Amino acid sequence: MKKNAWKLVGPLAGVVCPAIMLGQVPDLLNALDTSGPSKGAGGAFAATQTGTHAPYNNPAALGFTDKKLFGFDYGNLPRSFTNVSGVFDSPTMSTNGKIGDKTITHVGFVFPLGKPERNQGNFGFTYTVGGYINDIESGSGLTSGGLTVNNFGQLLKSKTDFLTLAYGKSSSDGTFSWGLGVNYVLQTTQVDRAGEFDDSNGNKVSNVTDPAIDDHGTGWNGVIGVLFNPKNSNASIGLSYRSETSLKGGKDFSGAYSKIPARFLGGITVRTDAVRKSDDYLVYGLQVEYFAKGAASPYFDRSQTQTNVSAGFEYNLSKFGGRIPVRLGYRGVQAGGVGFQSRNSITYGLGYRPNDSKFALDLNFASPQGGGFDLTLGATFQLDK
Fold first, then answer.
1. What do you get for the CA distance between the two ends of the chain, in Å?
2. Cβ atoms within 10 Å, residue 291
3. Cα 265 off chain centre by
């Protein structure tokens, strides 16, 4: 256990318990919202959205990104605390979400191949945090046969970083684009556990411990996508597929988290112009994200499929010398394994796009059911002269 990694109990050496206790962790192990500007709309535009987030979500959208762009997101990661009570082997659990560490969650570059007017396609290179959990369980007075478990604490932490290189190209008439990419994945996991077994007189009999895991693994996967813009329509339809990732790491790592499941992403976005007989316009979308079954694990189980739904809208107000996107949405994330629970959020946000300027700002929020609060500040800069 790393020094000060958690402060609920001190490190104790002693008896190794046969199985780790699994809490009801809000399940963002694979499904952290990576939609950037559309986070405030529930992330509903990720499958069709151009810009620096396209390489990770749907590289086909790079086909319609004909400018040199640099963008980043900065915000807090999720965190949760779980109180355990009752019987030690099958406890009652109550989990509350909290605000976690603040960090850079996305950095991206997009640039055309050759001159944009030649339509030779566009490349994108990004760093994206695609999954994250950080849960601390604690409790005292749990029964285990004739003994009582006191000062129990357990840490489950996982972070998945993606480095993506992708290419996308559109058709000459602008009705279709395709894209493909490759991801190098760095997976970091941390598991730790401590506590003590006491007899009926309150005397310590032994310690509660499991072999600590603090390791990382790496792997590769591929991503492909298509994007349709039907003629005489204000709709865009995006589809992408990311292959399963086999992770390789230290001897303890493989038993903790060996595979990231394959992901299917599909969404539709519709735009309505001249709202209120003005220059304002409305964009609304619906998206489904599906993760196939992965590997079973006593720590980070992926033995179930996971289906996540996003819906939202963005009202673009022409005001104050620019465009102000105002967003509202919903994101529902299903549990994808034993020991996890759903994480459903109301989302909202706004941005600013100054006229005749080469930058954009976005501030988005999410209020998850069960506690916590997500905040993301994003910026995009056009690098062309």
1. 51
2. 26
3. 13
Sign of the torsion formed by the C-alpha atoms of 139, 144, 150 and 155? negative
37, 363 Cβ separation under 8 angstroms? no
User: CA–CA separation, 56 vs 77, rounded Å?
Assistant: 18
Domains annotated for the chain, with CATH where assigned, are 25-382 (2.40.160.60)
Instruction: Give the CA distances from residue 182 to residues 21, 157, 168, 185, in Å, rounded to whole numbers and listed in that order.
Output: 36, 26, 12, 10
DSSP letter assigned to residue 118: G
Those residues with Cβ within 8 angstroms of residue 145's Cβ, 6 or more apart along the chain or in another chain: none
**Spatial CB neighbours of 251, under 8 Å, sequence gap ≥ 6:** none
- What is d(CA 296, CA 129) in angstroms, rounded to the nearest whole number? 23
Confidence band for 6, pLDDT divided at 50, 70 and 90: very low
Asked if pLDDT for residue 70 goes beyond 60, the answer is yes
- 132 neighbors 160 (Cβ within 8 angstroms): yes
Q: Is 0.85 surpassed by the pTM of this model? A: yes
Going by pLDDT thresholds of 50, 70 and 90, the confidence category of residue 385 is confident
String of DSSP letters for 34-75: --GGGGGGTTTTTTT--STTHHHH-GGGGGG--S-EEEEEEE
* Nearest CA-CA partner of 6 in 212, 216, 253: 212
22 has pLDDT over 60: no
